[in-house]
Amino acid sequence: MPQRSPSPVRPVPAIHPVAQQSTRDESYMESLQILERLHRLLLDLVKDEFERLGRSDLNPVQALLIYNLGAAEVTAGELRTRGMYQGSNVSYNLKKLVDLGYVHHERSEMDRRSVRVRLTPTGQEVRDRVIELFARHAEGLEMSGVLDDPPLERVNLQWRRVERYWAEQIRYIY
């Protein structure tokens, strides 16, 4: 039986740099769309949870504000600078949360223009419900293996890098 010569190894064609950049741009745009959808879904998940609990007085943004405030006592401005609140209408939401009894506010003795806020016991109950909701989701995602490939820690590292880049771009503009 005649011996067959091994088939020649064909080199993998290189991707043209322009095509490679186009693919990367498309991936970035897709990531932005996914990020936006995830944020909307997060708000929907929180809204559904509070509807199930019979708490229709809170909207999901307010519930997340309560969650992010946690045990801290801060000024309204610090809510934004510390990343606890990303929206533009923090004063409206804080006033609403104070009126509903979820947040306590107090004028600073040193600077009467400054108001410090913290959760009331009712606000702490809301925060605990959000913590429980997120814990259930983390457990379900862990059991499904979704958080393993790639490891969530690597994904978070990448998002922190994007966050830093965006923040630098904003500072550069001003």
From TrEMBL:
The keyword Oxidoreductase does not apply. It holds the Pfam family HTH_27. One of its GO terms (biological process) is response to stress. Residues 28-164 form the HTH marR-type domain. Residues 1-24 are annotated as: Disordered. SMART domains: HTH_MARR. PROSITE patterns: HTH_MARR_1, HTH_MARR_2. Coiled coil: none annotated. SUPFAM superfamilies: Winged helix' DNA-binding domain (SSF46785). GO terms for molecular function: DNA binding; DNA-binding transcription factor activity. InterPro entries: HTH_MarR-typ, MarR/SlyA-like, Tscrpt_reg_MarR-type_CS, WH-like_DNA-bd_sf, WH_DNA-bd_sf. Keywords: DNA-binding, Transcription, Transcription regulation. It comes from the Bacteria. Signal peptide: none annotated. PANTHER family: TRANSCRIPTIONAL REGULATOR, MARR FAMILY, TRANSCRIPTIONAL REGULATORY PROTEIN. This is Winged helix DNA-binding protein. It comes from Paracoccus limosus.
